[in-house]
């Protein structure tokens, strides 16, 4: 009987899986009646083979899902996949311990404790369990970046350019109190070598300053961003330069500067104007202590070229005393903010006379500071409606009233009231002043309301 069953098992192994599934019921009906009732035989019709999931351990399987091959990394795949961003959510989890703490005999507790049989029971909840799990996962790494406040964000979202990374590290007894370092550029650079292949590093360009005319910039490289930022920050602290700031808020004069293909025209602005310029120039001004400025960038907008050109222009500034001594003339300020009232900013030790001036000498201050250059300004065209007939009709109607507002403001500033040339002769020729309410009337109105 055993030989007969063995032959049947061998014939089953020769069949394919599909044919085995089809023929198994018919063979079962033929074989079962022939077997004695008191014998039970288990015939394993499946082939003993190891599965893919049985060959590799759990770590290798997880690595195949979460990691990227070296060829994929070179092609730019898996930029967000790293050990810092991967969290083992099973860590800290205990079977039977959770929102509902239950004792499971044979799984989380022994079946028999001493002479007593352990029964399934519910335990009280742990209020600090979620807090402990969150702290444990925070130490593993961050899946999502922490949300930054609007003041901490850089030029674009949570990226590093434009963000503050604090003062440089102290060197001995020298501490950088009041300094702040801001990132201007963070990029990935590659260096190809014959023995190591393509070597990847991060390059960081930063500027540091105390907001009072002292600043320095530097570049740092490293495999990790933290290392590159620390190197650049400390190098910038060792390369400080003194930059002149006029009246603590702007540059001394308009100037032109250039580095490579980058050209910058910088203009002085009054207090309250703000920084209207390239974002890299604005960041440098915040670190240096300049609050009001206008700058126009032409040509290449490479961040390092823009920063170097602007700092070069700041260092080449000349004070008003230096300009007055160089020209041997008085330097007089005429600005709209002071009502074009002349104010002497600097005077030379010996001033030239009018007959000593050359006929082709540049006496315009802006043109002199720009080394003879003239800024090309876009021509302003009149509005389209000025060509219509209706505009001429409107001007004729408004001719008697067009200067009334200016005259009113001038009279109030000059005389303190609106008056005419006949006011002195006829004092009653004044506009009626509104009656001021007495305290009694004001109190009555409050009570009525």
TrEMBL record:
InterPro entries noted in UniProt: Ribosomal_Su5_D2-typ_SF, Ribosomal_uS5, Ribosomal_uS5_C, Ribosomal_uS5_N, Ribosomal_uS5m_N, Ribsml_uS5_D2-typ_fold_subgr
The family this protein is said to belong to: Belongs to the universal ribosomal protein uS5 family.
Keywords: Mitochondrion, Ribonucleoprotein, Ribosomal protein
UniProt cross-references to Pfam families, sorted A to Z: Ribosomal_S5, Ribosomal_S5_C, Ribosomal_uS5m_N
Biased composition (Basic and acidic residues): 429-443
Upper lineage: Eukaryota, Metazoa, Ecdysozoa, Arthropoda, Hexapoda
Name of the featured protein: Small ribosomal subunit protein uS5m
Lyase keyword on record: no
Localization (cell): Mitochondrion
GO biological process: translation
Residues of the S5 DRBM domain: 179-243
Residues covered by region (Disordered): 429-449
Any one of the GO CC terms: mitochondrial small ribosomal subunit
Xref: Gene3D superfamilies: 3.30.160.20, 3.30.230.10
GO MF assignments: RNA binding; structural constituent of ribosome
């Amino acid at each position: 009987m055993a030989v007969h069953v063995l032959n049947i098992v061998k014939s089953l192994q020769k069949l394919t899986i599909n044919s085995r599934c089809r023929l198994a019921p018919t063979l079962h009906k033929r074989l079962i009646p022939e077997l004695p009732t008191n014998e039970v035989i288990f015939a394993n019709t499946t082939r003993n083979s190891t599965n893919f999931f049985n060959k590799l351990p759990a770590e290798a399987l997880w690595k195949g899902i979460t990691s990227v091959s070296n060829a994929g990394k070179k092609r730019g795949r898996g930029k967000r996949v790293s050990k810092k961003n991967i969290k083992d959510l099973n860590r800290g989890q205990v079977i039977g311990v959770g929102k509902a703490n239950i004792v499971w005999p044979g799984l989380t507790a022994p079946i028999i404790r001493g002479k007593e049989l352990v029964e399934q029971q519910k335990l009280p909840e742990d209020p600090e369990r979620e807090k402990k799990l969150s702290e444990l996962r925070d130490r593993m790494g961050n899946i999502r970046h922490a949300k930054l406040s609007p003041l901490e964000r850089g030029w674009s979202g949570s990226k590093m350019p434009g963000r503050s990374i604090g003062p440089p590290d102290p060197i001995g007894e020298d501490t950088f109190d009041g300094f702040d370092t801001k990132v201007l550029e963070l990029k990935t650079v590659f260096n190809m070598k014959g023995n190591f292949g393509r070597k990847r590093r991060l390059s960081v360009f930063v500027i540091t300053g105390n907001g009072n005319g002292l600043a320095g910039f530097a570049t740092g490289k490293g495999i990790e961003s933290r290392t590159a930022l620390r190197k650049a920050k400390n190098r910038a602290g060792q390369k400080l330069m003194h930059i002149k700031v006029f009246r603590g808020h702007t540059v001394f004069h308009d100037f032109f500067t250039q580095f490579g293909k980058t050209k910058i025209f910088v203009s002085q602005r009054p207090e309250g104007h703000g920084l209207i310029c390239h974002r890299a120039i604005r960041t440098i001004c915040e670190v240096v202590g300049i609050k009001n400025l206008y700058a126009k960038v032409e040509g290449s907008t490479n961040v390092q070229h823009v920063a170097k050109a602007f700092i070069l222009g700041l260092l080449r500034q000349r004070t008003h005393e230096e300009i007055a001594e160089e020209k041997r003339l008085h330097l007089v300020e005429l600005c709209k903010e002071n009502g074009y009232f002349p104010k002497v900013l600097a005077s030379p030790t010996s001033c030239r006379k009018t007959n000593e001036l050359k006929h082709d000498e540049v006496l315009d201050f802006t043109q002199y500071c720009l080394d003879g250059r003239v800024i090309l300004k876009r021509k302003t065209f009149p509005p389209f409606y000025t060509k219509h007939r209706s505009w001429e009709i409107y001007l004729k109607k408004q001719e008697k009233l067009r200067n009334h507002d200016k005259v009113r403001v001038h009279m109030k500033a000059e005389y303190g009231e609106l008056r005419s040339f006949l006011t002195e002769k006829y004092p009653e020729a004044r506009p009626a002043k509104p009656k001021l309410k007495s305290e009694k009337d004001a109190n009555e109105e409050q009570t009525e309301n």
